[in-house]
Amino acid sequence: MTINKHLQATDAEIAEVEMDRKFEELYDGIEEADNKIEDVSYRQDDFESDIDTVQSDIADLNIEVGGLLRTIEDLQDTIQELQDKLEELTDG
Description:
Helix content is about 95%, strand content about 0%. The chain is an all-alpha fold. The longest helix has about 80 residues, at about 10-90. The protein is rod-shaped.
């Protein structure tokens, strides 16, 4: 009977092993959650960087559009001047 007594774990030992296992699961869960948070943080940084890039691109395009609008206005003025000269030549 003494061998069986030594081979059997006490309730306290079983409870301790079970508690250790639960703490390990809890730690693993916390580590997994921390990794997910870190992942989301990297994604957010990438997203914010993409937003900054898009805003910069939009600003650049707005500058280009402004330049093109001025060019169109200049061309319209030139066309009007040429039409006026053509009228002078055909009327005169």
